[in-house]
Amino acid sequence: MERNVRQEGLASSYLSMTFENCREQKASLRRQIKQLRKAISAAEKEEWDHALCGSFIQALETAMEDLPQLQDGFVYLYLDIGKEAGTRQIINQLWRRNIRTAVPKVVGRELNFYEISKWDHVTLGYMGIMEPDETAGLPLAKQRDAIVAVPGIAFDRDGFRLGYGGGFYDRFFSREPEHPRWGLAYPFQLIGSVPHEEWDQKVNGLVTPKEAFIIK
Fold this sequence. Notes:
The chain is of the alpha/beta class. The protein has five helices and eleven strands; from the N terminus they run H-H-H-E-H-E-E-E-E-E-E-E-H-E-E-E. 34% of the residues lie in helices and 19% in strands.
């Protein structure tokens, strides 16, 4: 697609820039990628989300061969908003396979994950994001070694992630470090090098519409 080529070219041109301050680099990169993401058409998003779902399910099936706890456990996933890499097709596929899912709710400055088994279990929550409905009596998910699908602005192949600046996932992984963490991204969000600070939590897997791989 012509637009996809332009998006990847813009992301690459960003990498040639230098900044004196890591925070400034992060802020600039957030603006750049958000602009690219905003330009995605509905048809492109649908196509990428379908391919992303296929990549994720294939990677999960492979992981289940090596991680027995996944056979009867959870997969933790965010609920996408706007033009984020989509998780809804993935969640539907997990339900069809009788794989339990949990999604996050913001509680103060922390994330807690609750099990959902149908879309009626979520409602509009923090910052306009769909969250578990606290009136539905949903169980708190407590599997500390569950795979977590992680949202982000940008990722690199070393596992560094640029989030939205709230630190929610950094705090969650500091609290529960045992989780395998898989970043989900569209192709232009996978870049050469993400600016990072010492407290930034890395992912150890990446899933895009084109590929999925574990970071050693």
